[in-house]
Amino acid sequence: MSFRVASRLATLPPPATIAMAARARELRSTGVDVISLALGQPDFSSPQEAVEAAYQAGLEGNTGYPPIAGQKPLIDAIIRKFKRDNNIDATPERIMVANGGKQVIFNAFMATLDPEDEVIVPAPYWVSYPLIAQMFGAKAIEVPTREEDGFRPDPDAFRAAITPKTRWLVLNFPNNPTGAILERRDLEAIADVLRAAPHVMVMSDEIYEHLTFDGKKHLSLLEVAPDLADRILIINGMAKAYAMTGWRVGFACGPAPLIKAMISVQGNATSGICTLAQAGSVAALDGGMERIQMMRETYQKRRDKMIEFLKDIPGVTCATPEGAFYVYPGIAALMGKKTPQGRVLDTDIAFAEALLEEAHVATVPGSAFGLSPYLRLSCAASDEQLEEASRRLAHFVKELRSA
Ligand SMILES: Cc1ncc(COP(=O)(O)O)c(C=O)c1O
């Protein structure tokens, strides 16, 4: 039997990070001490109250098929969360729960995109937006941001990118990979662009909302522009702020007809979300903000440390992230240089590969996020690992020669 994948998969580019992750594993298995700053995974444990609530739910027999959109206690907790954190009044028909923020995106794109539709994605971006859009035959229209602007998007660039085929504008702030956040004036300017383009929906991925620094607070587009409520889909989830990546619980708040269509996609895909994970998520959402505050302070200290290290490395630039848990240093001045082992660093992919092979630090090259030449370094690692990785990076750069 000859095996053939569907054409919608055949056109998907291979993820830029897979080869790198495999090589890091291979090096480790031969005893090499590889430090990985490649993962977008909090290095904290999930809240104890979430674990206990999930266990209790199992003992109490909360183990049957759930409603596809989510169980009522979780929908109610999410409604409380939107009021508390975003000053948004949501109703149950505007909410759905999914297997992670990623499945919310998948549901939304599957429910709305036809081949040749366009999705505007500011670059750099989290890899899944363009990849999922492409699975449905749609085109990702990349709108680059600039390091000089702190990677904040230019509303005029959005205006110029909108065509009659545009279905979605994707916003992800605090941003993965840059840590940029949007201020009220940025959101107001974007809302003005959207008011002039009534056919465009907005996907606002706010999964890093609680991880903001220097006393800054995340603002939701919906809070700033409530008149656009029938066009804004907010994506959020338990993964980042609650360190619950493996529980696979994400949620959405959006226009009721869109949520209904997304529920129908999900009904055919997963029949809803693990009941124990839902019970745990209720406990986490209602569990107070102290843990989040502690994580935010820890990430901020690590960010400060990384920025301090990076600014002393000649040829490396770095905008200060205002949120999330990554730094995104620029390496343009190092392009074309040669390593002691003779590798020529003509792209950020070549740089990341050489850094892994010769200095044993795993990172993700900016090419994976659509803006080069950069590296994404995750601060979800211990102080010791961050210090040692920075030392290795500094030494690696110091040894580079002109090609
Ligand atoms: C910006 C962004 N959105 C969504 C997700 C997906 O989160 P989840 O684990 O809830 O699917 C991630 C995960 O890395 C992310 O970085």
Short summary:
This protein is of the alpha/beta class.
Features:
globular; 14 helices; 40% helix; 403 residues; Aspartate Aminotransferase, domain 1; seven-stranded mixed β-sheet; Aspartate Aminotransferase, domain 2; alpha/beta
Radius of gyration computed on alpha carbons: 21 Å
Helix-strand topology string: HHEHHEHEHEHEHEHEEHHHEEHEEEHE
User: Distance between termini?
Assistant: 50 Å
Class derived from helix and strand content:
alpha/beta
3D shape = globular
Quaternary state reads single chain
CATH level-four homologous superfamily name of the largest domain = Type I PLP-dependent aspartate aminotransferase-like (Major domain)
Task: Kindly report the average pLDDT value.
Answer: 95
What can you tell me about this protein's structure?
It is globular and about 60 Å long. The protein has 14 helices and 14 strands. The strands form four sheets. It has a seven-stranded mixed sheet with strand order 2-8-7-6-5-3-4, with helices on both faces. A three-stranded antiparallel sheet has the order 9-13-12. The N and C termini lie far apart (50 Å). It has helices spanning 7-10, 18-29, 48-59, 72-86, 100-112, 128-135, 155-161, 184-195, 221-224, 256-269, 275-285, 290-311, 348-359, 383-398; strands at residues 35-36, 95-98, 118-123, 139-144, 166-172, 201-205, 232-237, 250-253, 326-327, 337-338, 361-362, 364-365, 375-378, 401-402. Helix 6 (128-135) links the parallel strand 3 and strand 4. By secondary structure, it is an alpha/beta fold. The chain has two domains: 7-45 and 291-397, Aspartate Aminotransferase, domain 1 (Alpha-Beta Complex), CATH 3.90.1150.10; 49-285, 3-Layer(aba) Sandwich (Aspartate Aminotransferase, domain 2), CATH 3.40.640.10. The chain binds pyridoxal-5'-phosphate. Its cofactor is pyridoxal 5'-phosphate. Homodimer. It holds the Pfam family Aminotran_1_2. Its EC number is 2.6.1.-.
